[in-house]
Design brief:
heterodimer; A: alpha/beta; Rossmann fold; 6-stranded mixed beta sheet; 10 helices; 10 strands; 36% helix; B: mainly alpha; 11 helices; 72% helix; disordered N terminus; binds adenosine-5'-triphosphate; binds magnesium ion
Chain lengths: 259, 327
């Protein structure tokens, strides 16, 4: 449960293209860390190196260290599949499995882990996960219906339920609300505040207010200049980043005077 | 202009002249007309040809359908004449499908999800190339290479698995058996089946593959969770298209099989029925009079069965399109 992540001098490549350079940061457990920055500066790229989804892109690689409670995620003995079982992810577009019911979607990850589970335990897990995702009341009467029949916001909360059903240590979210309406966004923001009691949460967002509302710590990513790799410019308490950042570029960005 | 339209147009904005409607009917271009009429023509032509074939089959088969049973070859009437052939056709095609379908799924998976890109492309070409080999070549290969190779293994099957009706024996000494015919057919339907399935696998939404992998799925678990469910109806559709091809395949079976007209599930002896298409190819040159009508009547049956299989296949494939991954 809730682990600390330390990143040291991380360079991230797509084949020969250096997308992100020299990122070092510490992500505290039981907190929400927000990553903000202009488009194309490598926020998603960075986020995906934290659970080794990055290397699914052919020839993509990361150089540097990512430690979770001291364990090197990129160590020679480490299986990326095992990493992803500990570090869950929620994507920009809701992606429940279309051929599965709501129930099966929630337990999809648990079934993978090859745990033999009694029917009653499974039912309990589904209810607990859906309750944590604030979705239980809305779907409890149609658990056997396909997950793709839900609204976008419900689908996204279903994906969150699916991600937390396996009880990961860390939850990564890449613009989880960008496809949602304000009400669903509100629901998911509330959810994040609840979930951070138990999990380490990292969220990428373009919505400055959202970062200010939900996060404890904010990291600002930027491109040094056009054609240069992106990198972490500044990282600090969210209140500090939004009131008195130490970097000029950060100040311009958060106050909307960017570019 | 009514007053309500004027309300939405303040005076300082120019009003459209009344004689020019906002949405004009588009000008019909010459190229558009040529394209739409030639596409239409081609569509109609296909229907006409299909109807013509059906009409020909019906007219020519008609006398055989009502002929005196004694006059039909075999002397037991048209139904008992066609039945073993239909049985042979279905047996050969289904067994071929049984061999080809799992292989096609495996190859499609390998190409789309396991092989390095270069190998995948090369393998794709090779499979497509199989489709370009004339069927007579497959027939000759089956007869001269494959058949002798199967003699020993079928003997073994007879001795050890003889209790299964499929391998009852006695094993053929020449190898010109239903088993070999089915294997040859399987190789022949592999390309089309693989192509349809591969296409579906390629279209698996990245979103769903990543959803699975992010949960900590291994590659095989991801395939089971995201790829196979998404491709399921295409697998069925591709298999049925292959089945349609196997049903109508003529030369390979005509060359390989030495039929004797029995109705049996025994794959490895010499007592197999022929298939409709192969039977027509072999008997037609020496037939005359009512015999020709009888052969054509068997062709009519094949036409109906193949049409049915292909239509079902198309329906299954189209249903997947409606389903469209439900993003
Ligand atoms: N699959 C890929 N292959 C090659 N280059 C990529 C790939 N994905 C991203 N990039 C490049 O990496 C850089 C960072 O992209 P990334 O998607 O991480 O940006 P981002 O900060 O998430 O942007 P956005 O806010 O628009 O989502 C960009 O220059 C992008 O073109
Ligand atoms: Mg992004």
């Amino acid at each position: 449960m809730a682990k600390r992540i330390e990143v040291k001098d991380l360079d991230i490549y797509y084949d020969k293209f250096l997308a992100v350079q020299g990122v070092s940061m510490t992500i505290e457990p039981r907190s929400v860390t927000a990553l903000i920055g202009p488009s194309g500066c490598g926020k998603s790229t960075f986020l995906r190196t934290l659970n080794r989804m990055h290397e699914l892109v052919p020839k993509a690689r990361a150089v540097g260290k990512v430690l979770m409670d001291g364990h090197d995620l990129y160590g020679p003995q480490v299986d990326p599949v095992a990493v992803r079982r500990h570090i869950g992810m929620v994507f920009q577009r809701p992606n429940p499995f279309p051929t599965m019911s709501i129930y099966d979607n929630v337990v999809a990850g648990v079934r993978l882990n090859n745990k033999r589970m009694k029917r009653s335990e499974m039912d309990a897990l589904v209810e607990r996960s859906l309750r944590s995702a604030n979705l239980w009341e809305e779907v409890k009467d149609r658990l056997k219906r396909p997950g793709s029949g839900l609204s976008g916001g419900q689908q996204q909360r279903l994906c969150i339920a699916r991600a937390i059903a396996v009880q990961p240590d860390v939850l990564l979210m890449d613009e989880p609300c960008s496809a949602l309406d304000p009400i669903s966004t509100q629901a998911i923001e509330d959810l994040m505040l609840e979930l951070k009691q138990q999990y380490t949460i990292v969220i990428v967002t373009h919505n400055m207010q959202q970062a200010a509302r939900v996060s404890d710590v904010t990291g600002f990513f930027n491109l040094r200049s056009i054609g240069e790799p992106g990198g972490l410019v500044e990282m600090d308490e969210t209140t500090k980043i939004f009131s008195s950042p130490s970097n000029k570029a950060t100040e311009d960005y958060v106050s909307g005077r960017f570019g | 202009m009514s007053s309500s339209t004027e309300l939405t147009h303040p005076d300082n904005q120019p009003q459209p002249p009344p004689e020019a409607p906002l949405f004009e009917k588009p000008v019909s271009r010459f190229g558009d007309r040529v394209f739409s009429s030639s596409a239409m023509g081609a569509g109609v032509l296909i229907l006409v040809i299909l109807a013509g074939v059906a009409a020909f089959l019906l007219v020519e088969a008609w006398p055989a359908l009502w002929a005196d049973p004694d006059e039909v070859p075999g002397g037991d009437g048209i139904v008992l004449y066609v039945w073993p052939l239909l049985f042979g056709t279905l047996l050969a095609a289904l067994f071929a499908l049984l061999l080809a379908a799992p292989l096609a799924v495996a190859i499609a998976l390998f190409i789309t999800h396991y092989a390095p890109r270069r190998l995948a492309t090369a393998l794709g070409y090779v499979i497509d190339l199989l489709a370009a080999v004339p069927s007579i070549i497959f027939g000759l290969w089956g007869l001269s290479e494959l058949a002798p190779l199967t003699v020993e293994p079928t003997r073994w099957l007879e001795e050890n698995l003889g209790f299964i009706p499929l391998f009852e024996g006695p094993a053929s000494a020449t190898g010109r058996t239903m088993l070999v015919a089915s294997i040859v057919l399987a190789v022949m339907i592999l390309p089309i089946t693989t192509a349809v399935i591969r296409e579906a696998f390629l279209q698996t939404p990245r979103l769903h593959e990543e959803a699975s992998l992010a949960l900590g799925a291994t590659r095989w678990e991801m395939i089971r969770q995201a790829v196979l469910p998404f491709g399921r109806s295409s697998i069925i559709g591709g298999a049925m298209l292959g089945l349609g091809r196997a049903l109508g395949e003529t030369m390979a079976v005509a060359i390989v099989l030495s039929p004797s007209g029995g109705v049996t599930f025994n794959l490895i002896n010499n007592g197999n029925p022929s298939t409709i298409a192969a039977n027509i190819a072999l008997d037609f040159p020496e037939s005359s009079g009512l015999d020709i009508n009888v052969l054509i009547a068997s062709g009519l049956v094949l036409f109906a069965v193949t049409l049915l299989v292909n239509m079902t296949a198309r329906a299954v494939i189209n249903r997947r399109r409606d389903f469209s991954g439900a993003n």
